[in-house]
């Protein structure tokens, strides 16, 4: 009836409504949540909720947020709410300011002097330390950079509760900022990698074809490398939300090693190093971004420069494809471990405790007759692990192949 009697605009409107009704009536189809995307996505996986639209946007089928493995939807919801809530603003105010004793507006100290003046119309002058009127201060109370009244009252415990509350707020804020800044940094790096992928597809593959005569279909290893970098950045981004809500200290220590940092109490940096995930991704990123430039012309119109030989490009291809495979395998194992709640960590800890107890009994039985063994450097790996020759990942002694790159041990 519509097709016979309706106007062209009415037919289009009817078709849109019919399509929308069809999509929304099916449990296995949803509209892509990406801005300006008009595609519908069908859910066919039975492994996880991550789905990908034709527009390249990946999202979680369950909560329709951006794809967030290995973090569950509940954690994502809490993290997004925390990032947008006023709670961290209040923590910052509590940690970095004090209320004016007269009007109670928060005042931030921006210089070393303890003489504070509230903003108009209040203009009350007071001491930053004891919050007393500045009229009662001077050389006799310690001058502009100290306060004898505060020190005396502090010894008597007058400010204990307020200072403790301020320290707790400061600690909470520093911990949150540590995770949030790295979460946001990986998000930015992923967006940059997406732009680099598009540049490779539109420009670099054609240039390499002109230089080396290789069809673009045989240069897809570069696209695969960039796609893997984008996926790894996404995983790393959400591991920081995972770590923020991880309360188990044993699991937290192992998680931070896998992720890339060692921290003590989240305030004092004890050791910063690129962990297994971070270092593997950086090697791949370096190869795809920097090493590839050696095979491309420095300028669009320069055709006289000397390029590396086809043999060297072949070596680069093997290297980049190998790093892509290694990084993919490691991150898949990382995601699987985090989704399982790092269950193996507790088992490994119990096994290590049992092993130590057994070794202690054996050592006690041998007594002084035991021959002294040469000491081993702390940098060497223990007997419980062995390093992979290809990717240097430390594997448990029971493993016959590397869990990161699948290389056989012997």
UniProtKB/TrEMBL annotation:
Record InterPro entries: E3_UB_ligase_RBR, IBR_dom, TRIAD_supradom, Znf_RanBP2, Znf_RanBP2_sf
Domain of life: Eukaryota
UniProt xrefs under Pfam families: IBR, IBR_1
Biased amino acid composition, Basic residues: 363-374
Residues that span the membrane, as ranges: none
RING-type domain sequence ranges: 1-151
Cofactor: Zn(2+)
Domain RanBP2-type, chain residue ranges per copy: 382-410
GO MF annotations in UniProt: ubiquitin protein ligase activity; zinc ion binding
Enzyme class (EC, first level): transferase
The keyword Zinc is assigned to this record: yes
GO BP terms in the entry: protein ubiquitination
Keywords recorded for this protein, A-Z: Metal-binding, Repeat, Transferase, Ubl conjugation pathway, Zinc, Zinc-finger
Keyword hit for Transferase: yes
Catalytic activity line of the entry: [E2 ubiquitin-conjugating enzyme]-S-ubiquitinyl-L-cysteine + [acceptor protein]-L-lysine = [E2 ubiquitin-conjugating enzyme]-L-cysteine + [acceptor protein]-N(6)-ubiquitinyl-L-lysine
Segments of this protein annotated with the region Disordered: 356-387
The protein's Enzyme Commission number: 2.3.2.31
Sequence similarity: Belongs to the RBR family. Ariadne subfamily.
Protein name (record): RBR-type E3 ubiquitin transferase
Organism: Triticum turgidum subsp. durum (Durum wheat)
């Amino acid at each position: 009836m519509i097709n016979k009697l309706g106007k062209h605009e009415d037919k289009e409107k009817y078709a849109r409504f019919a399509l929308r009704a069809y999509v929304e009536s099916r449990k296995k189809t949803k509209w892509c949540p990406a801005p300006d995307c008009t595609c519908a996505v069908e859910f066919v996986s039975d492994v996880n909720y991550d789905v990908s639209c034709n527009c390249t946007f990946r999202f979680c089928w369950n909560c329709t947020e951006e794809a967030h493995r290995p973090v569950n939807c509940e954690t994502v919801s809490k993290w997004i709410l925390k990032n947008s809530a006023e709670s961290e603003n209040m923590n910052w105010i509590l940690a970095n300011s004090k209320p004016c004793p007269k009007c109670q507006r928060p005042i931030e100290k921006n210089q070393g002097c303890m003489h504070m003046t509230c903003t108009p119309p209040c203009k009350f002058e007071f001491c930053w330390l004891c919050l007393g009127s500045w009229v009662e201060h001077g050389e006799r109370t310690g001058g502009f950079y100290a306060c004898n009244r505060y020190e005396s009252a502090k010894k008597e415990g007058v400010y204990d509760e307020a200072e403790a509350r301020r320290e707790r707020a400061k600690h909470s804020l520093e911990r949150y900022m540590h995770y949030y800044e790295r979460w946001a940094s990986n998000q930015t790096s992923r967006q940059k990698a997406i732009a680099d992928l598009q540049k490779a597809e539109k420009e670099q593959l054609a240039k390499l074809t002109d230089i080396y005569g290789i069809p673009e279909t045989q240069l897809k290893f570069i696209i695969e490398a960039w796609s893997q970098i984008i996926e790894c950045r996404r995983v790393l981004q959400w591991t920081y939300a995972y770590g923020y809500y991880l309360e188990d200290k044993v699991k937290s220590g192992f998680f931070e090693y896998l992720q890339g940092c060692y921290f003590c109490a989240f305030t004092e940096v004890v050791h910063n190093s690129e962990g297994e995930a971070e270092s593997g991704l950086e090697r791949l990123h370096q190869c795809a971004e920097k090493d590839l430039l050696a095979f491309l012309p420095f300028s669009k119109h320069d055709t006289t420069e000397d390029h590396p030989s086809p043999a060297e490009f072949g070596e680069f291809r093997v290297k980049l494809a190998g790093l892509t495979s290694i990084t993919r395998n490691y991150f898949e194992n990382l995601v699987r471990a985090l989704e399982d709640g790092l269950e193996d960590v507790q088992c490994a800890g119990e096994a290590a405790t049992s092993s130590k107890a057994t070794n202690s009994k054996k050592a006690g039985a041998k007594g002084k007759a035991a021959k002294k063994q040469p000491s081993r450097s702390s940098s060497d790996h223990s007997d419980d692990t062995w390093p992979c020759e290809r990717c240097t990942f430390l594997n448990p002694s029971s493993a016959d192949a590397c869990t990161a790159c699948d290389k056989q041990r012997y």
